Amino acid sequence: MFEQQLMKLLLNKTFYDNNKGHLSKSLFTNGTGAFLDTVQKAHEEYDSDLSMEEVKALHIEKYNPALSETAKESFELLCSKISGAPEPNDDIAGDVIKSMYIKDIGHKLALLGTEAWNSSDNSKLLEAKTLLDKMSETSVSSSKYTYVTDDVFELFAEINKTAKWQFNLETLGRRVNGIGPGTLTLIFGRPEVGKTAFWVNMIAGPGGFLDQGAEVHCICNEEPASGPKGRMMLSRSNITSDSVKDEKEDTEEIKKEKRTKLIEMQKVWRPVMPQLHIPDDVVDWDINALDEYAATNKPDILVVDQLDKVGIHGTFSRTDEKLRAIYTGAREIAKRRDCTVVAMSQASAEADGRYEVSFSMMENSRTGKAAEADLIIGVGKSDAVDSEDRSRGICISKNKISGWHGTIGVTIDPQTSRYTV
Fold first, then answer.
1. What does the DSSP 8-state code read for residue 20?
2. Within the chain, which residues score under 70 in pLDDT?
3. pLDDT digits (tens, 9 = 90+) for 318-369
């Protein structure tokens, strides 16, 4: 009965085209194989839907003109039954055809394997290979394909999502626009140059991603997570780290002042507190754990400090190959989970004392890391004698978002983890 329902759906050209790679006369019994044969010939010859009357006429008059009267009556009876059969759901019918096809191929492979076992006939294995190649060509994937819209409003709304989250450094925001879902941003620099302060300010500083309403999740495997979270509180409240740091020589009066500062910080932090999430004990996480976390928690922005220290399964002959696999995984997480991934990386010794740094100076990387990124931001510092020099170069060496490349001069305040232009 269900075979007749499938035959009815196959009169529709679109349904036929979507499933023709899985159709075979051997799948059907009770005369429906002959009906299918006519439908297949007709669809290949005529690019349109078919009516039952057209199928009957083609089968009897064109494709099988020598049919006996008994055969004609039998086919007309089958057509009548198919016409009266209820029409099933397209998706269910497609899945049933696919399942029948896979079982049929499996049965044929089993027979060929048995014959090869019993006869040691290599030709049977070659037949099996041909059958598998044919199956590969028709594909048994359950994937449903979607295509890019032709609607200009929808198209540019999608493009504009790439810059959904705006940078809170005015000069940087004007030249790079911002970052958005499906993108991977890399931030790199030498140790102690201000990488962490840069992303902390970007997230929690005035006008940062938290102020814009983003749900931000931070994976901190470089240092205890309490450090970056505390710095975000400092950046948002514009309170210096020294003003709340406990010292042995603090008097009761000073302790009271520091407590007042902490209360003020808590008050400023409270409005955005629900938006920031920093899991603890992430040192041993690999790229699969990162993907699972993103799938479960659905962040708008996922910060990874540092991405190089995320593990990955597999054997790699060189460090740069391993790192490229990790960065490819991070890029896939951004696309698959529809989030923005912001990853930290170290710069090589070549970047020491450089105000302007490019992605070629990233540690243990040839082009692997850079190839996966949409935006690469280097944080540079000149080799000045003055250790208190707070000037930094924010260097854009790859930019698939707006296309702008260059260096922006900024000033860091290490005490509040803020950057200003």
1. G
2. 1, 29-31, 134-145, 160-162, 366, 384-387
3. 888 899 899 999 999 999 999 999 999 999 999 998 999 999 898 887 677 8
Identify the CA nearest to 393 among candidates 384, 403, 382, 404. Answer: 382
Integer Cα distance of 315 and 335 in angstroms: 25
- In angstroms, the CA 217 to CA 85 distance is 54
Strands 216-220 and 276-277: parallel
pTM exceeds 0.70? no
Residue 71, amino acid: A
Q: Where are the beta strands (DSSP E) in 96-236?
A: 165-166, 178-179, 184-189, 216-220
Hunting for tokens 């479960």 — which residue is that? 296
CA atoms within 13 A on the CB side of 263: 6
- pLDDT tens-digit map of 234-251: 999 999 999 988 888 888
Give the residue from 327, 379, 372, 331 showing the smallest Cα distance to 358.
379
| Helix (H) / strand (E) containing 153 | helix 152-161
The Cα–Cα gap between 342 and 165 comes to 12
Tell me which residue of 412, 4, 394, 398 sits closest to 173, measured CA to CA: 394
Strand 375-380 versus strand 184-189 pairing type? parallel
Helix orientation angle between 90-119 and 2-9, rounded to the nearest 10 degrees: 110
CB of 184 within 8 A of CB of 343? yes
How many Å apart are CA 169 and CA 167, to the nearest integer?
Answer: 6
